[in-house]
Amino acid sequence: KNEVEQSPQNLTAQEGEFITINCSYSVGISALHWLQQHPGGGIVSLFMLSSGKKKHGRLIATINIQEKHSSLHITASHPRDSAVYICAVPYSGAGSYQLTFGKGTKLSVIP
Amino acid sequence: EAGVAQSPRYKIIEKRQSVAFWCNPISGHATLYWYQQILGQGPKLLIQFQNNGVVDDSQLPKDRFSAERLKGVDSTLKIQPAKLEDSAVYLCASSSTAPFTDTQYFGPGTRLTVL
C-alpha cells in the first residue's frame, strides 16, 4: 500500500500570497489526484495528473514521477481558497484499484 | 448533470443505537465507494462496489457495519450498534471506471456524531 505524506499540515497565508502544498508518496503510480474539501465535508476533485503540469484558473498542479512528488500551487490566494487540500494516489487492493489519501493540508487565507 | 446525493447530512445518535446512510451516485456510474473520514485524517475506504457486486470490503468492520447496493444504483451503509469511535463523516463517491483512470465524484457527506 502506498504511503502518502503531505506538508505542511496547516498553512495560514495573507490574501494575495503564492501558496505551495506538497505531497510525497512511496510507491510508483500512474496518476495522482488533488482534492479540495470545504468545511461541511464536501470533496471536489481538482486535478488528476500523471505527468508534467496542469493548470486550472489560479491552481497549478505539478508532478515528478521519478521523485514521487507532487505540488499544488495557488497563485494570488483568496479567502475563498480556504479549505483542506488532499492528495490521493491509487493502489491495487483486493484485485481492484483504489485510492490512498493523505491527511490533508488545512489552508486558511486571511484578508 | 446531478452530483452524488447523500442523506441525511447530519445525524446524532447514542452509542449502541443503529443508523443508516443513503447514497445515490451519478447516473451511469458503475463504481461506488463508501469512505469514513475521522476528523483530521484523510478518507479511509470502507467498501467499493462495481455495479451491485462488492469489489473490496477488507476495511469494513463487518461485526457492526454493513452495506448494500441493490440493482447497482443506490446504496445504503448501516452501523449496528454504533460506537463512540464511529463518529466521523461518511462520504460516498462514484466513478464511471477505475479510480486511476477516471475522476471520483464525492457527495456532501453525512456527519455522524455518536454520544
Secondary-structure topology with pairs:
The complex is a heterodimer of chains A (111) and B (115).
Chain A (H helix, E strand, L loop, with lengths): L3 E4 L2 E5 L4 E7 L6 E6 L5 E7 L2 E5 L2 E6 L4 E6 L8 E11 L2 E6 L3 E6 L1
Parallel strand pairs in A: 2-11
Antiparallel strand pairs in A: 1-3, 3-8, 4-5, 4-9, 6-7, 7-8, 9-10, 9-11
Chain B lengths: L4 E3 L2 E4 L5 E6 L6 E7 L6 E7 L2 E4 L8 E4 L6 E5 L8 E8 L9 E2 L3 E5 L1
Parallel strand pairs in B: 2-11
Antiparallel strand pairs in B: 1-3, 3-8, 4-5, 4-9, 5-6, 7-8, 9-10, 9-11
User: Compute the gyration radius of chain B: what is it?
Assistant: 13 Å
Oligomer: heterodimer
Rg from Cα of chain A: 14 Å
Helix content of chain A: under 10%
Structural class of chain A: mainly beta
Task: Please tell me the overall pLDDT of chain A.
Answer: 90
Tell me roughly what share of residues is in helical segments of chain B.
Answer: under 10%
The unreliable regions of chain A are: none
Q: What is the end-to-end distance of chain A?
A: 40 Å
Largest sheet of chain A: 6 strands, mixed
Number of strands of chain B: 11
Q: What is the residue-mean pLDDT of chain B, rounded to a whole number? A: 91
What's the overall geometry of chain B?
Answer: globular
Shape of chain A: globular
> Which protein chains are joined by the largest interface, and how many residues does each one contribute?
A-B, 27 and 28 residues
Number of distinct helices of chain B: 0
Features:
heterodimer; A: mainly beta; six-stranded mixed beta sheet; five-stranded antiparallel beta sheet; 0% helix; globular; B: mainly beta; seven-stranded mixed beta sheet; four-stranded antiparallel beta sheet
